[in-house]
Each structure stands twice: as structure tokens, then as C-alpha cells.
Amino acid sequence: GPPASAEAAQAAAAASHAEVMEDVSAHMNITQAVAGMPATQLKLCLGTMQRLAIESPETARRLLQDQPQLCYALLHAQLLLGLDLDPSLPPSTEEMQALQLEAALRRPNRRF
Question: Can you list the alpha helix ranges (DSSP code H) found in 1-81?
Fold first, then answer.
């Protein structure tokens, strides 16, 4: 038969494949759970996490490190809400005006 090291490598590959499949399955469950939540609840979760990150960055960091599924869920919530994932800069004045105009144009029967 194959040498022991090849058998060990095969076993390790099978184990890591099983772990990856578990992760994928966990991510699917998180995605479905987040997708089933109302937008107001998603915003509340994101707002709460944002406040924690501002008031206690170490606690927030530790929480997300200990609970990677929470990190994934928050990311998915941002995507579902159509939020920009680049938090570095607030929108410029021009961006704000463009967004306000876009929102106004989307509203039917609005007189300018």
C-alpha cells in the first residue's frame, strides 16, 4: 500500500476538506438568517456594533475575533443594506447632493 506519510497526508486533506465544508455550510446558514431579518433590525445590529467599536474598540475587536460568524453576518448585513464597505471617509458634499437628488428623483409625483 501507499507509505504511511501519504496516508497521513490524505487523512489531513480529508479533514481540512470537511472543515471547509462545515465553514461553507455555516456561512450559508448565516447568510440565510441575515437575509431573513428586517432591514430595521439589521441597521440596529450594525449601529450597536458601531457604537461598541467607538466606545470600546478592544472589546469589539475581541468579540469579532472570538465570533468570526458575527463578523461575517455584519458584513452580509452591510451588503444587503447596500452600505458602502469603505468606512474611511464620510461622503463629500458633492456625493451628498448627488444622493439627495437621486432620492428625490426616485420619489414619484414630486414637484421641484
Answer: 4-35, 39-55, 57-66, 68-80
Q: Which 8-state DSSP code applies to residue 107?
A: S
Please count the residues of the chain.
112
Inter-CA distances, 4 with 7, 9, 14, 17, 40, Å: 5, 9, 15, 20, 56
For the full predicted model, state whether its pTM sits above 0.90: no
Q: What is the DSSP letter of 56?
A: -
Tens of pLDDT, residues 17-75: 777 777 777 778 888 889 999 989 999 999 999 999 999 999 999 998 998 888 889 98
Q: Judge contact between 104 and 110, C-beta under 8 A.
A: yes
Angle, in degrees to the nearest 10, between helices 68-80 and 57-66: 100
Q: At CA 85, angle to CA 93 and CA 89, rounded to 5?
A: 35
